[in-house]
Design goal:
Largest sheet: 5 strands, mixed
Helix content: 55-70%
Oligomer: single chain
Distance between the termini: 38 Å
Structural class: alpha+beta
Radius of gyration: 28 Å
Mean pLDDT: 85
Strand content: 5-15%
Number of helices: 15
Low-confidence stretches: 343-351
Order of helices and strands: HHHHHHHHHHHEHHEEHEEEHE
Strand order of the largest sheet: 2-3-1-6-7
Number of domains: 2
């Protein structure tokens, strides 16, 4: 739960800022209010250029949806006959949450590809169809949007059609579910950006207010790109631990007193040969999870392969042995369940998931006159690690 709350902190702060600015609109001069209307276009252009740079297609297409919806409502609809404008607006209220859900369920397939062109077409084509249909079939379509699924007085107080309201509720529930299933910056931004976008649609007659809320949604997605790019650079995708680049930066922060532990999964090559590399990946994930949960006073990193590193700032090697023993025992006492990836079993057949035990060997060294730099200390810890291997594995040596 803490992880979900922390991931929502920035998007919710931006939404709160939008609400605050909305309340202060009356105190802004008309020249500034005019410029605010163009803010979404500026933020959207910056957002899309970053998406192209970092190949983040899902957030790119979400930005296209937001900017297109805002542009149509801000500049295109006011010049249309009332019936046409109502049909297009009701259609946007239906399509925007639907497209948010559709985009969130898609995989990253790039933008300047056949898949990207197809998605771009699927987003914009329905809007073009609605614009053309509204011109020739205005009254029948408007009657369709006025049709009510249920008669409830509270629903009459909002300008959305009941079909749009149903789609909005579904979209909120789906994105909320995806956030709980996989908590990351992208899913958090999509969830709160959807809420901000719905507020934008609700304020359709307050054009400056619309600009504020759609800009907030675009900024949420912009921040998500930066966070996701940082995560890709610094966090190991398989284990979720910080990777080598993060370790290198951590080493630069170390003072004169520190120790570094190198740890290695025992007989990992043999394990891979026996159970396969998919099972090996599962073990790496589970071992990383136990290290993260049990390490005390140190920062854990994935060094590479089956090796992990723990940095203990301000501790000598002797002081690091006790927390390292806790890590070693936690992993050695755990029973790891290897999931069977082939779930196509006949009814009544027992699962072939396997329970295995894994041990690790650990070597730790601290800064000395001979090992005067962090990289030399790592080499020293690596030598001690091989000493632990030679002495029978599943032990801590210094």
């Amino acid at each position: 739960m803490f992880r979900i709350i922390s991931s929502l902190l920035i998007p919710l702060s931006l939404l709160g800022l939008a609400v605050f600015l909305y309340q202060k609109l009356g105190s802004l001069p008309s020249s500034q209010l005019f410029l605010v209307k163009f803010l979404p276009l500026l933020v959207g252009a910056l957002r899309m250029s970053l998406c192209l740079r970092f190949n983040r297609s899902l957030i790119f297409f979400t930005s296209v949806i937001l900017v297109s919806s805002y542009g149509l409502t801000q500049w295109y609809l006011p010049g249309l006959p009332r019936a046409e404008a109502e049909i297009i607006w009701h259609s946007l209220c239906l399509l925007l949450p639907f497209n948010f859900v559709a985009v969130s369920l898609l995989k990253e397939r790039g933008m300047l590809t056949l898949w990207g062109s197809t998605r771009f077409t699927l987003i914009l084509l329905p809007v073009l169809i609605v614009i053309i249909a509204a011109k020739y079939y205005a009254e029948p379509l408007l009657d369709l949007f006025k049709w009510r699924l249920v008669e409830f007085e509270l629903l009459r107080q909002v300008s959305f059609s009941q079909a749009s309201l149903l789609m909005m509720v579904i979209a909120v529930l789906v994105l909320n579910g995806r956030l709980f299933a996989k908590t990351n910056a992208q899913n958090s931004a999509l969830f709160v950006a959807l809420i901000s976008a719905l507020v934008m649609l609700y304020l359709r007659n307050e054009h400056v207010a619309m600009a504020i809320f759609v800009s907030a949604a675009l900024l949420m997605l912009l921040v998500a790109v930066v966070q996701e790019s940082w995560s890709m650079a610094y966090i190991d995708q398989l284990t979720g631990l910080p990777g080598r680049r993060a370790l290198e930066e951590e080493l630069l922060k170390l003072g004169g007193n520190y120790s570094i532990a190198m740890m290695d999964i025992d007989h990992f090559k043999k394990f891979n040969d026996t159970y396969g590399h998919d099972a090996g990946d599962q073990v790496l994930q589970m071992v990383a999870s136990r290290i993260r949960q049990s390490v005390s006073g140190g920062k854990a990193f994935r060094y590479g392969g089956e090796e992990f590193t723990i940095v203990f700032p301000g501790k000598k090697a002797q002081e690091s042995i006790a927390p390292l023993e806790v890590v070693r025992r936690t992993i050695g006492d755990s029973q790891f369940q290897l999931r069977n990836n082939d779930r196509r079993r006949s009814k009544g057949k027992k699962s072939s998931d396997k329970n295995v035990n894994v041990t690790i060997s650990i070597g730790v060294a601290n800064r000395t006159d001979r090992l005067s730099t962090p990289h030399e200390v790592i080499k020293g810890a690596d030598k001690v690690l091989y000493k632990a291997k030679k002495q029978g594995r599943n032990r801590v040596c210094k």
